[in-house]
Structures are given as C-alpha cells and as structure tokens.
Amino acid sequence: MAPKFGTSGLRGLVTELTPALVRAHVLAFLRACPVGTGLFVARDLRESSPRIVADVVAAAREAGVDVTDCGAVPTPALALAAMGAAAAAVMVTGSHIPADRNGLKFYTPTGEITKAQEGAILAALGEVPGKAAPGALRAVDAAGPYRERYLHAFGPTALAGRRIGIWSQSAVGRDLLAETLRALGAEVAEIGRAEHFIPIDTEAVSPDHRALLRAAVLERRLDAVVSTDGDGDRPLVVDDAGQVVPGDVLGQITARFLGAEVVVTPVSSNSGVQEMGFARVIRTRIGSPHVIAGMEGAGAGRVVGYEANGGFLLGFDARGPAGPLPRLMTRDSLLPMLAPLIAGAAGLGALVASGPQRFTAADRLEGVPTEASGALIDRLRQDGAARAGLLAAFGPERALDLTDGLRVIFTSGRVLHLRPSGNAPEMRLYSEAETPAAAQAMLATGLTATRAALETGDRA
Question: What pLDDT shows up at residue 115?
Fold first, then answer.
C-alpha cells in the first residue's frame, strides 16, 4: 500500500518512504501550509526514524527554511515547543503500527494540519521548488518544557505517596514520563524496557500484555501502571486492580476534572460521556483532524476533545491544582494519565466504577486490504439481510450510525462498530456494552464473524 494520509498523518511502508517521497511531501507541506518562524522536527524510536528525519531536515533546508531538531521526544512535546515558537513541525513516527512502517505528522504553528490542508499538500506535490539559500539547523530541548508544563499545573506533591509503574517498552517518552512522575512526588518502578521497537496500540492491548501489566500491579503492589504508544500521544493506564482503563473513560474523567463544558469525541468513544452532565457532547468521525474540526466549530468556552485511544486535546486555558495549564491543541497522553491519577487518589479503580457503566473494547483484523474491508462495509450498509446474518449473535438492531464506517446499535443497548483503518491494511472493530467483560466478549464474537465474512468475500 503506497504511503497515504490516514486518521493521523502520512503513513506507509518504510521501503516506500523513500528520500524522494519524503522530500516531495515536505516541500509540498512547506509550500501549501503556514510555516511561521521555521520547522521543528522530532522522531520516535523506530530504527527507520533517524534516516527519515535526515530526509525531512534536508528538504526543509533546501527550501530555505530554518530547522530546529528536537531529537527523540513525544509528539505532544514537539507540538508544544513548535507552537511556543510560532513554528511548523514534522514528527517522524508510525505511532502504534508495526516497525516495518513509519510516517510523518505535520503541524502548522497553530497545531495539527486539517483535512483541507492535507488536500492542499497533495495538490502541491510535484510543483518545482524555487532556489533558496540553505536554512539553518539547530537543536533545542523540547522535553524539559513539556515536563515543566505539568509540574507547574499540578505541583510537586500531586502524586506524593503513590507507587506507579511505567511500562517502558519502546515508547519514545519513557524516560521523560518517569522524570515527570517523580517530579510530581510519585515513587516510580520500571517494567519491561525494550531496545527493539514494539508496536503498542492503546485501543487493542493484547491478552499477553494485559496479563503482564496486571501481574506487575499485584506483585509489586502498585497504585497504577502507565505507558504510551510509540510516539507518546496515546495513554495506557492500568488501575490498582490491574485492569486497563479504556482511553475514552480516561477522557471522560479528565474532561470533568478540568471543568469542561463541551466535549468533542468520535463515534467510537463510549456513550457514557453523555450521562456526565456536560453542556454539549459533539460526536465526529474517527481521527484527531475531525476532533479538532469539531472543537473549532464548537464556539467559545471550555472545550476539550478526546479519542477512544485516550489522546486528549485541551482547547482552552485551564487551571490545575497548583497553577495554569495552557491550551494544547494536539493529542496528548500525559494529561489523561495525570488527571485520573490525581482525581483517583483513593483508588483509580473505584473512581472508574463511580462513573457511567458503559465500556468499550477495540481490536483489528490485520492484513485486510482497504478494498476488501470497504467492500464488506458497503455491502452491510446496503443489505439488511446480510447485516442481520453477520450480527445475529447480538440480537435485533435498533439503529445504524454511518458517520464513519458501520456502527450498529442493538435493542439491548450494546454497540458494534466496523471500519477500515486509515493507517494500515486492517479492519477495525469497536464494541460497547455495560461491563468490560461483555464488551470484550462481544468484540471477540464480532472479530470471528467479520473474519469469516471477509474470507467468504475472498472466495466469491
């Protein structure tokens, strides 16, 4: 599959992200979008990322743009540094997808590019750049200001007396996360550092990884375990009973903690948010560009956004217990870790149990071409009998939501949602039910039925 824009940036196989392709997209971005004072760059810990960063830097300097290299830091740390300098940015990362793939996330000086700007970049591909004097190159520390942002907002005793594990794996922000938690007063225990890249999808944590994290909590008597995906913009939080807290639940808790009035979240997030007393809840298509568009269209006020993967966008200047917390219009993992941990001082599991009892689960079928997943969803949209046959195990359907893929609401109140991945050849499935176990069981049944339907389609 040739590199293309998905739900979060340009993604593709490393072998296809050639120096020429990277150069073309960076030059098109610099021509089509606001750049401000220059270009900031950073990367995750994939083996391919340093080479791609070098390609990005070379292209930008060729265009006469000054470049600031932030090194290996989380995406939100890069975005914070770039926006603070009124500069554009490119993050080299494939996020949670396998190591044979990588990608580019583009930022203007005001935040992530929009869908309209994606189109403008594609339209500018192939334009011949003019000659320019080479841009300058320098390096800065983007990690320190990102850490200090949360220390100023929450204070040095915010997590005093808490024992928190960090599942380091290959997340780019693993050491920065440990430093931040210690600065906030926590005792930190590291788990599972890896020197090779491990793709971690915070929406689809594997059974083996769930067992590893549960055992760590119970054996080490931890109050929580925290981690992120590869580029540090999606949180993974395990409570004091060893249970993974869904990202959309982290989002609900964080929105309430901050006193948000309007919440913007994709249709894949669970519906419990609509029971939490917010003035408005706006549902969008999946992907941070759609959430950002929804936030921008929500008007003035205390607006936040989050995704089912837990990435949180702060759309207003908030305050923490110790000080100001300025807006940050990019997907962040640290805020939706810290707010629930602080709010759940008596036990994160108890805090989750006190909220609406709606739970989601998500997973994917890998190796499914986009054409095949799209064809199946189109058939299910149009053919009620085929849909009823595939989803018979869940009972009668009550309604359909076609905002993004196929989302079926059953008379039981449970939900199953199918959509092609925007980043890889995968079919994504999401479920919602009244208990975590029911959501997981529903997801497993849905995966089996969908796999069989795709195989039947292959033989047709």
Answer: 85
Q: What is the pTM of this model?
A: 0.88
Amino acid at 174: R
Between 1.10.10.10, 3.40.50.720, 3.30.70.980, 3.40.120.10, what CATH number should domain 162-353 receive? 3.40.120.10
List, by residue range, all CATH 3.40.120.10 domains of the chain: 4-142, 162-353
Which residues of the chain are in CATH 3.30.310.50 domains?
Answer: 359-459
Identity of the amino acid at 329: M
Per DSSP (E only), the strands in 333-442 are 359-366, 397-401, 406-410, 415-420, 426-433
Which residues are identified as catalytic? 95
DSSP code string of 128-156: PPPP-PPPPEEE---HHHHHHHHHHHH-T
Residues 344 and 133: their CA atoms lie apart, in Å, by: 54
If you classify domain 4-142 with CATH, what class do you get?
alpha beta
| 438 contacts 353 by C-beta, under 8 angstroms | no
pLDDT of residue 114: 86
H helix runs in 184-308, sequence order: 207-220, 247-257, 288-296
Whole-number Å distance between alpha carbons of 37 and 254:
33
- Report whether pLDDT(459) > 80: no
Question: Which residue, among 244, 157, 148, has the nearest Cα to 200 in the 3D structure?
Answer: 244
| Angstrom distance (rounded) from CA 309 to CA 268 | 9
Strands 187-193 and 163-169: parallel
Q: How far apart are the first and last CA of the chain?
A: 23
Beta strands in 26-171 (DSSP E): 39-43, 67-72, 88-92, 101-108, 111-112, 137-139, 163-169
* The CATH fold of domain 359-459: TATA-Binding Protein (3.30.310)
